[in-house]
Amino acid sequence: MADLSLRAVRKSFGQVRTLHGIDLDVRDGEFVVLVGPSGCGKSTLLRLISGLDEVTSGEIEIDGQIVTQVSAAQRGLAMVFQNYALYPHMTVFQNLAFGLENTTMPKAEIRQRVHQAAELLQLSALLARKPRQLSGGQRQRVAIGRAITRQPKIFLFDEPLSNLDAELRVQMRIELSKLHKALRATMVYVTHDQIEAMTMADKIVVLRDGRIEQVGKPLELYNTPANRFVAGFIGSPRMNFIPAQVGTGQAGHLQVRCEGLAPLALNLPPGRLPESTSVTVGVRPEHLVPGADGDWPLRVGVIEQLGNTSFVHGSLPSGAPLSMALSGQTRIEPGQTIRVRPIDGTVHLFQTTGLEEAIVSNP
Question: Quick check: 311 and 278 in contact, CB under 8 A?
Fold first, then answer.
């Protein structure tokens, strides 16, 4: 396996710049997930790492060796695509062996590698079948197995689960996590699905418009997002955002005031926020609780009952939308006005200019 380093990596297509100076370190054996909305540059970055596309400027280093000008075939990496890219006329065994048969590797070693990968991925009983005889999950395992047989320095995954149904995606997430532990492999994984990122990654890289917004462990990004974009992208349902202003409360202490709501007494950094500064309050739906002592009146519009969880969607007196996640089932009805409050220590505060960076993250 190998370390991976990117230094000031930029990519332009003609006059359009897609990546704006990416700096990133991936340690040997890490499972790193690149996540972000469509068009943020995550798949482009993966193709630059693989060598399928050339960087415009910057350096890519694998195990201490600069490979920026090295061809894809010589980088020792293996890439798994979302469309499987299997040969329909070949059996599973032939698909797994194909990349090795074009080398000088002895046939006995090829067979050994194929059977090892098939056993690891529970494909041994399917080696004589062709792709059309396989389910979507089985085809994806064959695509992963083809990468395993190459024994690459780094595995690269480009949205490999996006073509699977919801149940299969959950199953494959678990299998990929088990595979990572079994192989102790360095893996770089691209997805737009933040649930995949949260459940599989050792480290998440959040991208927006060709720039890295934040890098960290999944719960670091959930608990202490660097800015409003990361806060809204990580977590499902997304964080609630409420416009507010800084004001002076009792004994001259600063307070955060949302229109129509009781003031919030937050531990604001001294001197950071003058009075009347516009800010944004952030509260996750799962950090809101109903109760008679709640300070926030929520007019309920829609209830989503999932059995084990209920999502209550409505609005505050100011018209700002607000969602609350409750464990289990609820008797709350649309049209009701209920009182809710944020759990102590769970309120985030963001400045409302520039990147809307975090000022307070209390979790």
Answer: no
